[in-house]
TrEMBL record:
Subcellular location: Golgi apparatus membrane
InterPro entries: GT18_cat, MGAT5_Glycosyltransferase
Protein name from the UniProt record: alpha-1,6-mannosyl-glycoprotein 6-beta-N-acetylglucosaminyltransferase
Residue stretches spanning the membrane: 23-44
Origin organism lineage: Eukaryota, Metazoa, Chordata, Craniata, Vertebrata
Domain (Glycosyltransferase family 18 catalytic) ranges: 182-777
MF terms in GO: alpha-1,6-mannosylglycoprotein 6-beta-N-acetylglucosaminyltransferase activity
Catalytic activity: N(4)-{beta-D-GlcNAc-(1->2)-[beta-D-GlcNAc-(1->4)]-alpha-D-Man-(1->3)-[beta-D-GlcNAc-(1->2)-alpha-D-Man-(1->6)]-beta-D-Man-(1->4)-beta-D-GlcNAc-(1->4)-beta-D-GlcNAc}-L-asparaginyl-[protein] + UDP-N-acetyl-alpha-D-glucosamine = N(4)-{beta-D-GlcNAc-(1->2)-[beta-D-GlcNAc-(1->4)]-alpha-D-Man-(1->3)-[beta-D-GlcNAc-(1->2)-[beta-D-GlcNAc-(1->6)]-alpha-D-Man-(1->6)]-beta-D-Man-(1->4)-beta-D-GlcNAc-(1->4)-beta-D-GlcNAc}-L-asparaginyl-[protein] + UDP + H(+)
Protein EC: 2.4.1.155
Length: 792
């Protein structure tokens, strides 16, 4: 039997004399280089699918024909000549030192070593030429097989208008199927039949093949529904979080510290829901920013004053999902992601090996990019199951890839064409997204009493753990000097022993404190003061919850992606009016005081006022454990971006009927939904809808807030009809439909009523000086802006 190339190479290595290692390496190197060249020339057509095959064995079925076997025999013969030369050298290993030198001289005379190098080079060139010849044989063989396939009529490209891309995908596979090993994993071997089978059964670009005995695509039976049950034991969750990173250790410490509060909150919510059925979901949490592949710049800085807000939020998310009773898996590496999803081996061009094994996937932008690289077409198929944790929010104009590209909204983030509410934010600043949030620790009565007794009226703590936040400018010098006249200033700035931080001498720096020690400091302090950065973090809420007044700077002009380096490139045009807009707008005085720090008189007056007032610890309900459980429960049980929406308006609806959908509220220009006339499936329920118009130059976010309401993008499809304009009193000279994130809207200049073409562009954000926008608003629960009064 003719030896395989792998067998010959192995024999070459064994026969090379140990004494002459340089020569041995040289010969084997030349041989291996030639083999690699040959394999490359074959274009990836080596296979080792059979148990007995070596990775270097060339399959006769692939090469085909007597001519290819002859070419391989020549390669084997050439390598055999090299091995015979080595046999003579291998005998030298058993000789004495003197005799070995004599035999070496004799052997070298016989084989003419100078010529040997040239011969090996010639052999390599011959092998290169043979590789070209074998490639030609391959092409003829494949062409012959295609002709045979066509003769039987099985592997002709089907002409089916329901699969318009089948032909182009076949052409792509013929040219590129060797570009990713995943195609071979699914059985692709270079023949048209294998291409068609793959494109019809693994992907979905070609119709099912009748001769495969599956006239219809097999459908999986839906699994039996299981009921979610609240659980307070966190042991299994802590095991899921894992070890090996300081960020994970931080998250586990937080989960343990808050375990009792989560358990108590779960009992209260269970009573509120009155044992209502809750579907138990299989949920994957992939924390992309903590993977090594994304760089993970956060973990090394956990103990050095680095940002912790994201880890706080992720710890609370996984805890909420676990306590609600869902089956949660956690991934912080690509290896874990591959294993959980069933990613085939290769470079990520192919779909998953089976159905998506999860109902929901929570990830971040880093994780979303990783899934795009490794899930192939499956991401497009399953992206409705994804929820993206997105601190600063993503507006629809940035999310819509085509629109963003055409109208200047394209950034390094965004453009994923997700439903806007699949993005989940840290604060409720972007109604187009869902508000996920986090939790701050609640105080019991004993802790409240301690604060009441131990507050120090002239003590301030500065918000900023990193020394860079303390770089003193003239503005900071002014207000720190004013503050120092009235108060003792404390800091929690990280520093290394040999390099103390550059903070003013009158600041008492405690260094980076563990969470419990930081809380003790906040419970004594009267004021928690912000320098203007970081933006929208969790620390101000924790300070307010511990009885501090948060004093923060007002930004004039407001900061955004248009004028601020930090926000530049983020997929939002939101204007940030202060360091913490949520604290300013949703909490406010006396717990939050927002002033112009550049105005010395205003700053001085604010300090005087703070010295005179006392405040109780305060925590908004939506940032308690119960508030977060309530909100996440409602999202999981009601948000569905996978099922097709029931068309609206209903077919054959008359214009008169559509006009009756909206009724005007007494003594108001606001319209509500006439639920007595028509009931339509929706979440939030349509009974919460309040329709109004914005002023020119006003966004729907602002218009709804001005009436004490919240903009609700899920209602846009119900007001995107010309009858809504008529109900609001607009006279439409022209009705047009267009892709524009400001529509539906009315142009006062031309009397045009403009409707929205693409539902992905329904947006609460955005304004125009030329348009009055139609705004779908809703009410909300006390302390829970994410949910309407009837949403639970």
């Amino acid at each position: 039997m003719t030896p395989t190339v792998g067998d010959l190479l192995s024999t070459m290595v064994r026969r090379c004399p140990v004494t002459f290692k340089p020569f041995r390496i040289f010969v084997v190197g030349i041989g291996f280089f030639s083999l690699c060249f040959l394999m490359t020339s074959f274009g990836g057509r080596f296979s080792a699918k059979r148990p007995g095959d070596s990775p270097f064995t060339v399959r006769a079925e692939v090469l085909g024909g007597q001519e290819s076997r002859g070419a391989l025999r020549k390669i084997s013969d050439t390598l055999e000549v090299i091995m015979k030369r080595m046999d003579a050298l291998s005998k030298l290993g058993n000789a004495t030192d003197n005799h070995r030198l004599e035999e070496l001289s004799s052997a070298l005379d016989r084989i003419q070593p100078v010529g040997l190098v040239e011969r090996i080079q010639a052999i390599a060139q011959n092998m290169s030429d043979m590789a070209v010849r074998v490639e030609q044989i391959l092409q003829r063989s494949i062409a012959t097989n295609r002709a045979k396939d066509g003769a039987f009529g099985q592997c002709e490209i089907p002409k089916d208008p329901r699969y318009p891309d089948c032909t182009s995908k076949m052409d792509w596979m013929r040219a590129r199927w060797t570009s990713d090993p995943c195609y071979a994993f699914y059985g692709v071997d270079g023949s048209d039949c294998s291409f068609l089978i793959y494109l019809s059964e693994v992907e979905w670009f070609c119709p099912p093949l009748v001769w495969r005995n599956q006239t219809t695509t097999p459908t999986l039976k839906p699994l039996a529904r299981k009921q979610a049950v609240f659980q307070s034991d966190i042991g299994a969750l802590l095991e899921q979080v894992g070890t090996g990173k300081e960020s994970l250790s931080f998250m586990k410490r937080r989960i343990r510290r808050l375990a009792a509060q989560w358990a108590s909150a779960a009992r209260r919510l269970d009573e509120k829901l009155r044992n209502r059925w809750r579907d138990k979901k299989k949920i994957l949490v992939h924390i992309g920013f903590l993977t090594e592949e994304s760089g993970d710049v956060f973990s090394p800085k956990v103990l050095k004053g680095g940002p912790l807000g994201e880890m706080v939020q992720w710890a609370d998310i996984v805890t909420a999902l676990h306590v609600l009773g869902h089956n949660v898996k956690i991934s912080v590496s690509l290896k874990e992601l591959h294993g959980f999803l069933g990613v085939p081996p290769g470079r990520g061009s192919c779909p998953l090996t089976g159905a998506l094994p999860f109902d929901l996937i929570y990830t971040d932008y880093h994780g979303l990019q990783q899934m795009k690289q490794h899930m192939g077409l499956s991401l497009r198929k399953h992206k409705c199951h994804i929820r993206v944790i997105d601190t600063f929010g993503t507006e629809p104009a940035y999310n819509h890839e085509e629109y963003a590209t055409l109208h200047g909204y394209r950034t390094n983030w965004g453009y994923w064409n997700l439903h806007g509410q699949q993005y989940m934010t840290m604060f409720p600043h972007t109604p187009d997204n869902s508000f996920m949030g986090f939790v701050a620790e609640e105080l019991n009565e004993t802790e409240r009493l301690y604060i009441q007794r131990n507050k120090v009226n002239n003590m301030a703590v500065v918000y900023g753990k990193d020394a860079s936040m303390w770089k003193v400018s003239k503005d900071k010098e002014k207000f720190l000097a004013v503050l120092n006249r009235y108060m003792e200033i404390h800091g929690t700035v990280y520093y290394e022993t040999q390099r103390p931080p550059e903070v003013p001498a009158f600041v008492k720096n405690h260094g980076l404190l563990p969470q419990q020690e930081l809380q003790q400091l906040l419970r004594k302090a009267k004021v928690f003061i912000g320098f203007g950065f970081p933006y929208e973090g969790p620390a101000p809420l924790e300070a307010i919850a511990n009885g501090c007044i948060f004093l923060q700077p007002k930004f004039n002009p407001a900061r955004s992606s248009l004028n601020n380096e930090f926000f530049r490139g983020k997929p939002t045009s939101r204007k940030v009016s202060s360091q913490h807009p949520y604290a300013e707008q949703y909490i406010g005085k006396p717990h939050v005081i927002t002033i112009d720090f550049n105005n010395s008189a205003e700053f001085d007056a604010a300090i005087h006022d703070i010295m005179k007032i006392n405040v109780e610890p305060f925590l908004p309900y939506e940032y308690t454990c119960e508030g977060m459980l309530e909100r996440v429960h409602a999202y999981i049980q009601n948000q569905d971006f996978c099922s097709p929406e029931v068309p609206f308006p209903p077919v054959n609806s008359s214009e008169a009927l559509l006009e009756r959908f909206f009724i005007r509220e007494p003594n108001s220009r606001i319209l509500s939904w006439a639920s007595s006339i028509i009931s339509f499936p929706s979440w939030p329920p349509l009974t919460a809808l309040r329709l109004l118009t914005s002023l020119q130059g006003q966004s729907c976010v602002e218009a709804c807030q001005s009436k004490g309401l919240t903009c609700e993008p899920a209602f846009y499809r119900f007001i995107n009809i010309k009858e809504a304009f008529k109900a609001l009193g607009f006279q439409c000279e022209v009705v047009e439909s267009e892709m524009n994130h400001l529509f539906p809207a009315f142009s006062t200049e031309h009397g045009e009523c403009s409707l929205q073409v693409d539902p992905l562009l329904f947006s609460c954000a955005g304004s125009s000086a030329k348009h009055q926008r139609l705004c779908p608003c809703r009410d909300h629960r006390d302390g829970q802006v994410a949910l309407c009064k009837e949403c639970l």
